[in-house]
Amino acid sequence: MEPSYVPEGYITPLFYWDEENTSNRLHISEDRLSIKVINGAGFKTSFGTEGFSERERYYFEIKIIKGTLIKIGVSKQLDNNNQAFTDVPEGWGIYNGETRHNSNALGSKYGERINPGDVIGIMLDMVEGKISFSCNGVCWGVAYESEELTEGKYFPAVAPIYLNDEYRICLPQPED
User: In Å, how far from its chain's centre is CA 95?
Assistant: First the structure.
């Protein structure tokens, strides 16, 4: 599945789910593009294989196959993948129509609740320190603006909660 919308000036990185940096409560498909929850005990995080470097703009998409209460965004890598990446200062994401950063329960209203079939776009601007999200090609605007987002290395991150929740990376397609 290819990205449905790519903002101008953004890189669409090729990545897969990282078997070394994904919770053991998640099953990674053979092609390493899909993840399914196999243990529904609490949030757990999956990370992409490619880190995003400073002074660039990145765009990637995640398609929700099953589930609605899934945290999606970017994070520096964590020591404990059996928690949501957004519960700590290194993680930035959306969840259930709100933002989540350094909190398991608090965030500002943002966007809408996601549903199965939705394609969530993540725009990480490491030049200006911003993150924006889209749903099915409709941009929800800037969710975060912080100098922290211009420094270090961030990875695609998703944290589902319920048994059988499932999601998939939308791979970038080569240009003609």
Answer: 10
pLDDT at residue 105, rounded to an integer: 84
In a domain, 1, yes or no: no
Calculate the CA dihedral of residues 58, 61, 67, 72 and round it to 10 degrees. 0
Residue 5 within any structural domain of the chain? no
Q: How many CB atoms lie within 10 A of CB 100?
A: 26
- Strands 57-66, 46-48: pairing is unpaired
- Report if residue 109 sits inside a domain: yes
Angle at 160 between CA 36 and CA 52, to 5 degrees: 95
Residue 52 lies in a domain: yes
Domain tally, the chain: 1
Backbone φ and ψ for 148, nearest 5 degrees, come out as: -55, -30
Domain extent for 68: 17-170
Which parts of the chain sit beneath pLDDT 70? 1-5, 173-176
